[in-house]
Design goal:
Blueprint (H helix, E strand, L loop, with lengths): L1 H30 L2 E5 L8 E2 L5 E2 L1 H14 L5 E5 L5 H6 L5 E2 L7 H5 L3 E2 L5 E3 L1 E6 L13 E6 L4 H11 L4 E6 L2 H9 L5 E5 H11 L6 E3 L7 E3 L3 E2 L3 H20 L6 H4 L5 H6 L16 H8 L3 H8 L29
Parallel strand pairs: 1-4, 1-5, 9-10, 9-11
Antiparallel strand pairs: 2-3, 6-14, 7-13, 8-11, 8-12
This protein binds glutathione.
Glutathione binds next to β11 and β13.
Length: 338
């Protein structure tokens, strides 16, 4: 009896394993669109524009996955999630990918049943204060009240840093992004602490007089931000991972949304593989060989997406810094498609 139930249990697990392995791509294809978990609205990364259309660096990753699968970057839907809701939404299958300024940590990448296919923005945690506070360094924050959002890695990072630097502070914590922003804007706390990208976005898009605020020079952590998928579906993991690397490789090779058609006749073998002129690399992912062509044509390469959403061509004007390509002194290093 025991042996039989063991056999049945093993069989059930094997079947469940087999079905989850192939299922996300099939589910997405049958449904006709990919579902991405986003923030509730965080300009530059994931937020609706004036027409209600979602835009941002993270949205471009979601659109790129849609372009790779359907040859149509518009085949995506968003589920807005606050910091605390995001992991359960992914675990439960409510979303296919989390594309939302999420720090890759060992705990998240292992124990939560989810995993990280890559990093699309290298960041660090920082501090923003009103200029009127008269503070120019994080070292002067002893005694401050600090606003934070629940369910972020920022809470623990701040606690560790404050203990190490003998800084006493009072945390003021809220579940919803808007509540944190409003508390800071109304002076309920002296300091806003989150990822530097978040501070740049909040300063420009959420505070009525951005020039009244400064972001302090210190970054107190590494915050590698990137997408997450569920564990147990290697094909889906690969699709998201290689979508990101296609964006990065396209930038490295100088393939852009405006020259991609011309590049189809390039004699460079790496470009021929990227754009599906040489066959087989889409097939490796269970996709059409034109997967990366569609990404670049419809969404653009990583640099185009960075500039448009958060960089020089956007109000945030975040410098490329660590997010520059490896051959220009940054950390982005597209893995070779070959
Ligand atoms: N990178 C950190 C923080 C990410 C985070 O959730 N930041 C907040 C503050 S900027 C946010 O994006 N909130 C938007 C929302 O809840 O809609 C993490 O992964 O825990």
């Amino acid at each position: 009896m025991k042996t039989l139930s063991l056999v049945i249990t093993t069989l059930a697990f094997t079947l469940a394993g087999t079905s989850t392995q192939a299922s996300t791509l099939d589910t997405v294809k049958q449904r006709g669109h990919v579902i991405c978990g986003t923030t509730t609205g965080f300009a530059g990364f994931s937020a609706p524009d004036s027409k209600g259309e979602w835009q941002g660096l993270d949205i471009d990753l979601c659109k790129s996955v849609a372009a790779a699968i359907f040859g149509d970057a518009s085949k995506f839907k968003t589920v807005p999630l606050n910091s605390q809701q995001r992991f359960t939404a992914l675990q439960s299958g409510e979303i296919d990918i989390l594309t939302r300024n999420t720090t890759v940590t060992q705990q998240r990448d292992t124990a939560l049943g989810i995993q990280s296919p890559g990093v699309n923005f290298y960041d660090g945690q920082g501090f923003m204060v009103a200029k009127s506070l008269g503070v120019s360094s994080a070292k002067e924050l002893d005694g401050a009240t600090i606003c934070l959002q629940t369910g972020t890695s920022n809470e623990n990072t701040l606690a560790d840093w404050a203990r190490a630097n003998k800084i006493n502070y009072t945390p003021v914590v809220f579940d919803q992004f808007n509540e944190v922003v409003n508390a800071f804007a109304s002076g309920r706390c002296d300091v806003y602490s989150t990822d530097a990208s978040g501070l740049a976005s909040i300063r420009i898009s959420r505070l009525s007089n951005p020039n009244d605020y400064i972001v302090l020079p210190e970054l107190i952590s590494k915050e590698p931000l990137g997408p997450f998928v569920r564990q147990g579906d290697d094909q889906w993991f690969n699709i998201v991972k290689w979508t990101l690397h296609a964006q990065l490789n396209a930038e490295e090779m100088g393939v852009t949304s405006s020259n991609v058609d011309k590049q189809l006749t390039s004699t460079n073998p790496a470009i021929q593989r990227l754009l599906g002129v040489t066959e087989g690399f889409g097939k490796n992912l269970g996709l059409d060989d034109k997967w990366a062509y569609h990404i670049v044509k419809q969404v653009g390469n990583y640099g185009e997406s960075f500039d448009r959403n958060v960089g020089a061509k956007s109000p945030l004007n975040i410098p490329r810094g660590l997010n520059q390509q490896w051959f220009k002194g940054g950390l982005h290093y597209g893995l070779p498609i070959r």
